[in-house]
């Protein structure tokens, strides 16, 4: 029931944008270690940049990589700015990404994150991509996967953007289930230090640069409840050793409140918006946050 609501809520909010380019979505097989049998599709624009940026875009529950391609603006933006987009597909029955198992929540532990990082590494080799310009963004289940991927592979991703997600580790289970009702309902509350420790524990001993994070959430989200937004902010500000007090606040649109925490974390709260928040123009703001709107 929860997964059905998750998918329905997200699908209602997606923007269908026709692809004007002659480039097309291509399925790739044999891309590397893939313990959970994910499928991989890639969109390479006709005019790809020299040493292009690579964007990983995991989908929402019951969706697929081709659905994410058709129903979001990332491919159109790739046409404009010359980056490459990877669209993974979860193949289990629920079509949700594993952000719950102990294997998924540690670097190279197994399950979906290993398959997705194989896709990224394949694309970097295949397209002579720029390893300093690798990003991940997703919606709902894909947003949760975004948080997991930047925790597991902080040395790979420069930044992530999570649209209606939960903190890394919040959905953790040990009973084989991929759904955590307590987390979905916003009842898993921890201190910033505790959340930061969870993210850091995904890659023990890592002391390098951490990915920048952009977080989005609607105040009326009834699938992954709004308290998760604050917990995400707590997690990533702590990972960056920042205060939870924003350094600036503005309103890019009348019902949006954007809070910035230095130049590392950006959090956009949308008043009165539910789970279906991927409206036109939001993908562009993620691309701008990444810096993929510049050909370098």
TrEMBL record:
Biological classification of the source: Bacteria, Bacillati, Actinomycetota, Actinomycetes, Pseudonocardiales
Superkingdom of origin: Bacteria
Signal sequence extent: 1-22
Organism per entry: Lentzea roselyniae
InterPro entries, alphabetized: AB_hydrolase_fold, Esterase_phb, Plant_Biomass_Hydrol_Est
Record keyword Nucleotide-binding present: no
Keywords for the protein's UniProt record, in alphabetical order: Hydrolase, Signal
Pfam families: Esterase_PHB (PF10503)
Protein name, UniProt field: Esterase, PHB depolymerase family
